[in-house]
Write a structure and sequence with these properties.
By secondary structure, the chain is an alpha+beta fold. The chain has helices spanning 7-22, 37-50, 86-91, 110-113, 151-166, 173-181, 184-189, 200-217, 231-238, 240-257, 281-296, 326-342; strands at 54-60, 64-71, 77-79, 95-97, 120-127, 133-141, 221-228, 263-266, 271-277, 299-302, 305-308, 311-317, 347-351. It is globular. It starts with 6 loop residues before the first helix and ends in a 5-residue tail after the last strand.
Length: 356
């Protein structure tokens, strides 16, 4: 038997190629970074354009697949060996599988045999400047698809779009500094696993960094405390899965409503902390209004129909060039938030202007 016909040799060859292709990811430090609207937009576009249940952008390390963005499927990371991406990574080429049950590489995978029972898969490799595979654009559906001449073109367009965005450094200075100083394990500890935004500790560390910088830069820093109105009632009436749906949808809506250099973190159970750099009071009010308007368009799907969600917001803005601590400005925003709730909820209050 020729060497290239030996299954063992072929397996070793594929493993070697895969190792070479993903080695570059160790230099590309993008694992466990927060939710970004530019990737959410690609995932939403991919889901619609390909007519599938779920679409996303992933990063790949030697033994796992992490979803930088995913729409239509609640997942954060998977062992690479159990993922539908492994065959694509090993081949190094874009891959479309019209029916996973008819492909021996996929038929026995847990994602095909058990939940969510994916029958269709499409994946496009994302490469760095040295041609190493560092991630994928991927699409999944629970129904097989018929051959379609436009599928590959659509997949290729979306893959190139995801690659361009993934290789564009767009985290603002304070976030970049935090990401560069911390290993992936530490960053993972600073992200909220449900909403994929910074958690309370991550948000306050970023706020501390920004406030210290503002003392010399003269920029004003604004903080918005955002509370989901009547969240306990939503949980009690519709159940925790709907409550989780509210948190994830509202987090994504806030991220999509603010500027790329603004910071969103989940501060508490039903509370978000938004940090705005170089923001005067008028801009702060404008952003709060836009967030409220966008979230008001969000509907939660339940067995009893859709549910409207509103927000109460409290805002505080630092004085230019003057020292300010994270605790103090958060306390001020909290006072404004309390005023909003006492005034009937579903609104925004600026400290101290609106509560004198």
């Amino acid at each position: 038997m020729a060497a290239h016909d030996d299954p063992t040799s072929l397996s070793e060859s594929l493993a070697s190629k895969a190792t070479m292709r993903i080695a570059g990811l160790h230099k590309f430090d993008g694992f466990y970074t927060p939710l970004e609207e530019r990737f959410e937009r690609i995932s939403r576009l991919g889901k619609k354009a390909m007519g599938v249940r779920a679409a996303g952008v992933t990063l790949i390390a030697d033994d796992k697949l992490w979803f930088k963005s995913i729409v239509g499927w609640r997942v954060s990371e998977l062992p690479l060996k159990d993922s539908l991406e492994q065959a694509m990574v090993e081949s190094g080429e874009p891959l479309i599988v019209l029916d996973t049950l008819k492909d021996a590489r996929f038929a026995k995978l847990p994602l095909v045999k058990a939940g969510p029972k994916f029958r269709f898969y499409a994946g496009y490799p994302i490469r760095d400047a040295t041609e190493n595979i560092i991630g994928t654009f991927c699409a999944f559906d629970t129904q097989p698809k018929a051959a379609d001449g436009t599928l590959f073109e659509t997949l290729s367009d979306l893959g190139h779009l995801a690659e361009r965005e993934l290789l564009t450094a767009d985290l603002w200075d304070a976030q970049s500094q935090l990401v560069s100083k911390l290993g992936s394990a530490r960053r993972q500890a600073l992200l909220d696993t449900l909403t994929r935004v910074w958690n309370r500790r991550g948000g306050t560390e970023l706020l501390d960094t920004l406030l210290k910088e503002s003392e010399t830069s003269g920029e004003r820093v604004a903080v918005c405390m955002i509370d989901i109105d009547l969240f306990k009632e939503i949980n009690d009436k519709y159940g925790h899965p709907v409550g989780d749906q509210a948190l994830t949808k509202i987090a994504a809506s806030i991220v999509g409503s603010v500027r790329p250099d603004d910071i969103v973190s989940r501060y508490g159970g039903d509370e978000f902390l938004l940090i705005l750099r170089d923001a005067a009071p008028d801009l702060c009010r404008s952003i709060a209004e836009r967030i409220s308007t966008d979230v008001a368009k969000t509907r939660l799907r339940t067995r009893k129909g859709s549910v409207l969600v509103t927000l109460s917001i409290g805002m505080a803005v630092s004085d230019a060039g003057k020292p300010m601590t994270a605790k103090k400005i958060i306390d001020q925003a909290d006072q404004a938030l309390y005023h909003t709730k006492q005034s009937g909820r579903a609104g925004a209050t600026l400290y101290p202007d609106d509560i004198r």
